[in-house]
Structure formats: structure tokens, C-alpha cells
Amino acid sequence: MASSGIPPDTGALMSAVLEGVLYGFSVLMFVGTIWALTYKRHMQDINRPIAVVAILLLLVSTVHMIVTIIRVENGFVKYRDTWPGGPAAFFADVTEETYVIKHALYIFQTVLADGVMVYRCYVVWQSVQVVILPSMLWCSIIVTGVHAVYNNSQAITNPGDVFAPELETWIMAFIASTLTTNLVCSGLLLYRIWMVEREVSKVRATKKGSIMPLVRILVDAAVLYSVVLFSLLICFLCGNNGESVLTDLAVPIISIAFYMRDNQWDGTGNQLATISYEAVAGPYIQIHAQGQYLSALSRK
Description:
By secondary structure, this protein is of the alpha+beta class. It is built from nine helices and four strands, in the order ααααααααββαββ. Helix 1 runs parallel beside helix 8 and helix 2 packs antiparallel against helix 4. It is globular, with a radius of gyration of 21 Å.
């Protein structure tokens, strides 16, 4: 398929700038998330799995940002006069080392974040049957993602065309899998939290401590990531080079969406609410809102 849209070298420069901005924002959200997880808590009370995932997401985003800078420097400076076809051909080559590394990092970031989403669904619902479909989708993300990166690295016949059928098919399958996983898991989480809120509201005297603000945050995070994935899918369907920009932006956006799902803040910088997915799953719900605790019996 003939590509259209912005030239590959222009897209590489644009994505490097925009990714840098989003990366800086994700670092700030990471600091807030770690503070929320550790502030005034003993070591045994810290949600260690979530903290580890948050750190891993930051590390992957950081490495991806570094590789992006190296790739831009290689294309515009180091190989500007020696690469056949110049910078445009360099950035269009899907077998180039930095291209493969960046996309492998993107796949790993996606697998990690979507795996946490599936885990949260299981914790909230406490049912293996509920997570069968999300788990199958998560496995398809791994298979299609690994296959897509491998095919890119072995694309000898037409290395300058990411829209070649043998490459595009697996890439689109990967995007469709992670988009579906995000929508399904977000829907399951939202539905469960909404049911808990409905039961708690029957015994709560005031609206203080409501977890509905968290529902809005979950919706915002799901919409943010879904819009990026849907736009990326459209770019591949249309053969638009904007896919390279969106792919780079997806890495920090995955981190941002993850941090959004864990904490909510008010306009003054104070923590408004946090949610314990384990608490939602149990017979008692504990919501931390404005420094006050609410415990209410939930009927399943």
C-alpha cells in the first residue's frame, strides 16, 4: 500500500517533540502515584505490585524516550549523508535497529499495562469466568505483538513500507486486540464499581465519600487510550504515515492512563480519592476521600 500523509523524517521529528512533552507529564504523574501509594503508610501496607508496575512503566517510557532521541540523532546527523535515500528513507526503514527496539518497547509496555487491567478485573469480580475473555485477548496481544516486531525486523524485500500486507496484517491485529482488551476490561471495572456505589448509596447518609468521581477518571483514562488506538488503526487502514507519530505517543499515554486509574486529585493538588480494587471485591468497601474513611456493607 502506498503511504500518504507527512514525510517519515518530519513525522520522526514531530513525534520526538510531542513524546518528550507527554513523557514529562507522565513523570509528574508517576511521582504523584508513588507519593499516594507510600505517604503515611508502613512498608507492609504499600501495594507493591502496583508500585512495581508503575516503576516498570516509567523505566520503559524512559528507555523509549532515549532511543527516540538516538534515532533522531542518527537519522538527521550521523547517517544523513550516508544512508541511501537520506533521512526520509532512514526513518521509513522498519528493519533499522532503533525502529525495532522502539516498537519492542511499545509492545512490552502494552502487554504490561493490559495485563494489570486483566488482573484488576479478576480482583474486583473474584471470578475466573469473568476474565476468560480478557485473558484470551491479552494472550492475543502477546502473540500478534511479538509476531509484528519479528516481521518488521525480517522485512528484507520491502523494508521501507510498513504498510506491506505481511507487516500490516499483524500490526492491525495487535492494535485491534489491545483496543478490545482496553474496552472490555474498562467496561467490567466500571460496571462493578457502579454496582458497588449503588449498594453503598443505600446506606450512606451523605454523598461524601462517593466513588463516582473515580468512575469518571476510569472513563477518561479508557477514552484517552482508546482514541489513540482507534486513530492508530485508522492510520493503518488509510496508509497514513501519521501512525509513526501515534505509535511513539502511545508509550507515555499508556503510563499516563495507568496513573490516572489509580489516583484522583482536586484542583488544589490534594488527594481527592483512591480506590482499593481488593476492597471493592470484598464484602466491605473502604473509600479514602478527603481524609475520611467510609465503610459500608455491600450486597453482591
